[in-house]
Amino acid sequence: MKSLIHVLRAGIPALLWGNPGIGKSSQIYQIARENDCHLITLIASIREPSDFLGFPVPDGEYVRYAPPAWVKEAKEEASKRDVILFFDEITTCQPSVQAALLRIILEGVVGETGLPSNVYRIAAANPPDTAAGGWELSPALMNRFLHLYLDLPFPKVKVRYPDTEGTVRIIDQWISLFPSYWGNPPTINVEHETFTKARTIVAGYISANRSALIGHPVFDSEPGPFPTPRTWDYVSRILALKMAGMIEEDEFLLYASGLIGEGYAQEFDSWLSELSIPDPEKVLRGEEDLPERLDILLIVLQSITSMVISKKDRKEEAEEYCSLYGKLMKRVFGKHPDMTAVSVLPFAQAVQRDEFFMNTALRAAPEIKEIVSQCLELMEV
Predict the structure, then answer these.
(1) What residue spans define the domains of the chain?
(2) CATH hierarchy code of domain 1-151
(3) Confidence band (pLDDT; 50, 70, 90) for 264?
């Protein structure tokens, strides 16, 4: 698991499962030691909710939450080196403590105090039936982790029931905006273009396998991962690490299985192995044909959109790329209006946020205004 530190640094919390004595804690100690990380161990089973939410302190008419002592230690050490927060025996903590952990695991926030970005979260757990006073992890907490099993080659999902009900109206918007990320993207030690390409590939896969966006596994006695928009976000980070050569092929499948389940991960990995993507720049310039396969077409169109947006602060390049983009999207819209709409939405948002880019785009490609309007109408935005 030498590459697991890259996963943690990508902002993905990990949970190691295994029977007592299998070596979960020693694996985590080894990761901290080999990467010169300061390790803070918190035994979840002996903690109260206030240890993770903070302690209520009167402040005039209000109450604020004072962070516990371990937060001070984490912040001080993070100014010198990376920190790993290790939550041990997580399946022996009560539901109220699990609830208190939700924001820490996902956002790195303790009560009202945010932890530095180089404070990483990892946990270890015994299956509830082997833990003294064990509790099942709530789905909300479970879905915040990458799941790894030390005594199994891959995590196992017994049965899965894809359920897209309720997502039909918004899934196109999710696919459209996924490559450009929402809010502040995580800090990952890969090139921005690599991360964007990885997210574009994931969006292309979901466009062709929409039932894979959200799945609800049925567990026997073994907890396990399942796909959601959040865990697909994590998979895109793992894919970016693989594309950058930071993790191996077998490790990618292991980590993807720990995020979305073995069945979903194997299907995605098989799809990846058959993927052949033309150069988006050459397609934009008419030097290569548009692909006929719709999932690959979407990947190419979204890659072109990201490329055009990246030129927005360079006047001459922006005009050239917007001119080519307007002609291409007008041609594609006539044959694939839905596909064009999904691809154009991030461009529409970019020009709305940047007046200079909007004026450049309209000057270089007058047809783009009509195309954007038609696409937004199709997307019901």
Answers:
(1) 1-151, 280-379
(2) 3.40.50.300
(3) very high
